């Protein structure tokens, strides 16, 4: 890696975000703060700072409102501060529910919040912190907000956008050496491995995001929502502050010498989120260009890890969706993606899901309550032929495996 970074090509003129609602996670510092400021200046109608520290968020909002340059650039735009702690699913769910209650539209979701963790640190979700913050919570945010992004695209007549901040450091992943077996599980391995080298936990978490987006793009087209990722290379931000003390000074020195300023990095973010086209769906841009992915990601072994990660992530998501009424509002394409992704989340700490199936979206009615009223679907006929009964799960039913509703109702 050289000491100097290539210059960033200028953005095309005329980017105007009037009428758009944009969420920036981690808008309190570094790249997120700089990009939030630039988006306000580009006339966005609503900019939402999704932050874990709302006091800090409100102070930044006040400083934006007091800045004559920002106010004159966008006198009508609003800035909202909303709480989002990526360490917990509860916070993600509270954020998305509250967001959907308050806003009827979402044009752009910038999944920027993230950080390094250098030693294994478990969080309340039962996952390792880097995996939860940099990967799992981003998956949940994306999937929960996908229906709103889709309906916004329908109204706007053009795709909405999700841009997830990745990192080239995914190339340093530990998973290329000895990928865990299907029975051990990737998430389980990363949650519990003690001896992952310094920086590799971060690299692993960024690889998961990239593999997830690649697999999602295989299943979910770009006609309603373009979902991509980018790496801004080295940017002089507060990232080094989370490093062990003996690395902070050298890391800060490298950032000062080599790093781009957060303001410079905003052009890379805006390029990915507003300029890059559908060809970047499911891809990582390094600076402003899609470059070949690592040999590992392109290898058969990498493809197996990608597919295994998807199969682990989707049940996990399904468990979380199952308790969430918004799940019933999922658009059909999103539903198919979510059902697949849901398989991922459930695999945490229990027997892995061995298979998953997909069908066209269908409505489920209780045969007990509506006997003979609803015609069988091809899928239900297929299940009936094989003697498979589908327990009907009611929203809000708690407990692992989820289950039936106790009435013994079956489709
Ligand atoms: N700087 C680089 O060289 C570089 C290179 C490649 C990729 N990136 C990526 O760029 C993104 C932004 O990082 P940065 O360089 O701007 O670093 P930063 O200045 O440390 O900003 C990180 C932001 O994420 C927020 N955040 C961290 N953990 C969170 C949590 N649990 N819940 C909610 N918000 C949380 C922080 O909030 P607080 O203010 O509350 O701490 C902060 O706003 C990250 O995803 C990072 O991985 C950075």
From TrEMBL:
PROSITE patterns: VELVET. One of its GO terms (molecular function) is oxidoreductase activity. Residues 1-393 form the Velvet domain. The keyword Oxidoreductase applies. The keyword Kinase does not apply. Keywords: NADP, Oxidoreductase. PANTHER family: DEHYDROGENASE_REDUCTASE FAMILY PROTEIN, PUTATIVE (AFU_ORTHOLOGUE AFUA_3G08550)-RELATED, RETINOL DEHYDROGENASE. Belongs to the short-chain dehydrogenases/reductases (SDR) family. This is Velvet domain-containing protein. It comes from Trichoderma gamsii.
């Amino acid at each position: 890696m050289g000491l100097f970074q290539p210059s960033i090509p200028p953005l095309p003129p005329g980017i105007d975000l009037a009428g758009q609602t944009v969420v920036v996670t981690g808008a309190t510092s570094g790249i997120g703060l700089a990009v939030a400021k630039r988006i306000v200046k580009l006339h966005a109608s609503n900019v939402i700072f999704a932050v874990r520290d709302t006091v800090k968020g409100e102070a930044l909002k006040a400083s934006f409102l007091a800045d004559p340059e920002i106010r004159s650039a966008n006198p009508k735009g609003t800035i909202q501060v909303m709480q989002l702690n990526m360490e917990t699913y509860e916070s993600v769910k509270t954020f998305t529910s509250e967001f959907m209650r308050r806003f009827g539209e979402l044009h752009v979701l910038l999944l920027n919040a993230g950080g390094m963790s250098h030693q294994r640190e478990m969080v309340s979700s039962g996952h390792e912190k880097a995996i939860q913050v940099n990967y799992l919570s981003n998956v949940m945010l994306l999937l929960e907000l996908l229906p709103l992004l889709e309906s916004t695209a329908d109204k706007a007549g053009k795709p909405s956008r999700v841009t997830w901040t990745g990192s080239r450091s995914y190339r340093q992943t530990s998973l290329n050496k000895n990928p865990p077996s299907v029975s051990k599980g990737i998430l389980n391995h990363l949650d519990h491995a003690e001896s992952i080298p310094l920086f590799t936990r971060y690299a692993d978490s960024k690889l998961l995001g990239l593999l997830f987006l690649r697999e999602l793009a295989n299943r979910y087209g770009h006609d309603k929502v373009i979902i991509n990722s980018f790496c801004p290379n080295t940017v002089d931000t507060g990232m080094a502050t989370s490093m062990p003390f003996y690395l902070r000074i050298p890391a800060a020195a490298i950032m000062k010498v080599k790093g781009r300023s957060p303001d410079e990095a905003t052009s890379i973010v805006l390029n990915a989120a507003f300029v890059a086209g559908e060809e970047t769906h499911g891809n990582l841009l390094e600076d402003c260009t899609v470059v070949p992915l690592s040999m590992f990601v392109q290898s058969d072994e990498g493809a197996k890890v990608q597919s295994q990660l998807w199969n682990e992530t989707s049940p996990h998501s399904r468990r979380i969706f199952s308790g969430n009424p918004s799940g019933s509002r999922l658009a059909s394409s999103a539903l198919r993606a979510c059902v697949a992704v849901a398989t991922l989340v459930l695999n945490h700490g229990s027997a892995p899901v061995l298979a998953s199936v997909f069908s066209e979206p269908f409505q489920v009615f209780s045969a007990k309550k509506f006997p003979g009223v609803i015609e069988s679907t091809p899928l239900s006929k297929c299940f009936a032929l094989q003697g498979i009964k589908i327990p009907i799960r009611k929203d809000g039913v708690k407990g692992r495996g989820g289950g039936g509703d106790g009435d013994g109702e079956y489709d």
